[in-house]
Amino acid sequence: MGMTTPRVEADLGWALGRVARAHLRTAQDVVSGLPGGPRGYQVLAGLAGGPPRTQLVLARTLGVDRTVMTYLLDELEGAGLVERRPDPADRRARQVLLTETGRGRLCDLERRLRDAEDQLLAPLEPDERDVLRRLLQRLATDADGASPCQVAADIQAAETGGAC
Questions:
Q1: What are the chain's domains?
Q2: 0.85 exceeded by the pTM?
Q3: CA distances (Å), 162 to each of 99, 115, 131, 154, 156, in order?
Q4: Mind giving me the DSSP string for 103-117?
Q5: Rounded to an integer, what distance in angstroms lies between the CA atom of residue 156 and that of residue 161?
Q6: CB-hemisphere CA count at 13 Å for 16?
Q7: What distance in Å separates the CA atoms of residue 70 and residue 78, rounded to the nearest whole number?
Q8: Which tens digits make up the pLDDT trace of 70-110?
């Protein structure tokens, strides 16, 4: 009796890869006009709620090199989406805050991303979508300690053959 070869569709890696690539394409379309694209979105999302963050803390939290973060913040600030000001606790550090324009843009992007995700997940029932999101979030936060920005950069690099 010979063993049967499992179908590729039953492979977790294949399924995760297909869904991740489809999500990345969709998300890139949504954030394409935003300075910094997906990283710019991560910065805006990272600034929403909570106390103001310094550039350095924000860079570390998102897993973005601090030099890259400076250029990214320059672009976002030039578009009126964030502002930097001296940290009252340490005048050498700079706090980064969302502007009202930035908060509005973030809300619009979040709505558009959720709509795009709902289209991607349309084959699932609404309660299944919620369960899938929760399970993936739990796996992602426990996987290997990689930041969301690094995960997105890794996927993009794999799709473009490593070109940045």
A1: 12-158 (1.10.10.10)
A2: no
A3: 34, 29, 33, 8, 8
A4: HHHHHHHHHHHHHHH
A5: 8
A6: 10
A7: 12
A8: 999 999 999 999 999 998 888 888 899 999 999 999 999 99
